[in-house]
Amino acid sequence: MNTQSNGERILVVGVGGLGEHMVHEALERGAQVSVMVRDRTKLEDRLDADTLVRLTRITVGDATDPAALDEAMQGIDVVLSGNGAHKKMAREMAEAVKRNGVRKLLWPAGGTNLLADDGITPAYKAYANAGFNAEAIYKAHQACIDAIRDAGVNYVIFCPGRMTPAGHRSPDVASTIRVNRVAGMAVSYEDAAWVILEAALTNIWDRQLISAATPS
Ligand SMILES: NC(=O)c1ccc[n+]([C@@H]2O[C@H](COP(=O)([O-])OP(=O)(O)OC[C@H]3O[C@@H](n4cnc5c(N)ncnc54)[C@H](OP(=O)(O)O)[C@@H]3O)[C@@H](O)[C@H]2O)c1
């Protein structure tokens, strides 16, 4: 499975660690890729010149601003968020997706929002044991999931554990994908981007929460 784009027009909102890898993955699959960022200089520092020239459109604006979102979503088929745990952004982006007739919103949440087969969330436990406020992390992500569902748009929520760059994609991340269950505690940005583009270009996980893990 490595679904190629039929020239889908994809918008990546927020080009940080995950966003950068989603841009590369989408271009590699033949999509037309636009981005929305708050700071153009940061984007130019993050992406190499060859990637920058391949972008269809760069919109500079805040993803909580409805007017900026409307500008960025003109002629867009699928929106990929490069930022999560931001309820206002989730709500405004979902509303903009609806207003602008975008087919689907892909959103990153967290591993705390998925159960393991035994009914326990391993990420929640790990954060709590490490002294983090696991409940606050869970609630921040869940508020975004609820806002997207409330807007009534089509979506896929990707719930990763810790994400870091690996420098390459795993050969078998597809075999780790779980629906409404946690796949593991960590996934590389490369593997996360691969899963998110599969979700963007097919309808197999529409309206689901999914996860994946990079095999160690
Ligand atoms: N990294 C992890 O281990 C991990 C694990 C589980 C879940 N997640 C979720 O996955 C998301 C992506 O992870 P990441 O590691 O790629 O994060 P990241 O490197 O911090 O990237 C987030 C990007 O979102 C942009 N952004 C934030 N608010 C924005 C706004 N209002 N308008 C436009 N852009 C905005 C930031 O832009 P600026 O550069 O302008 O700030 C940044 O480029 C996280 O936000 C988190 O919710 C991450």
From TrEMBL:
Top-level taxon: Bacteria
InterPro entries, alphabetized: NAD(P)-bd_dom, NAD(P)-bd_dom_sf, Polyketide_Oxido-like
Ranges of residues in domain NAD(P)-binding: 16-200
SUPFAM superfamilies xref list: NAD(P)-binding Rossmann-fold domains
PANTHER family: FLAVIN REDUCTASE (NADPH)
The protein's name: NAD(P)-binding domain-containing protein
Organism expressing this protein natively: Arsenicicoccus piscis
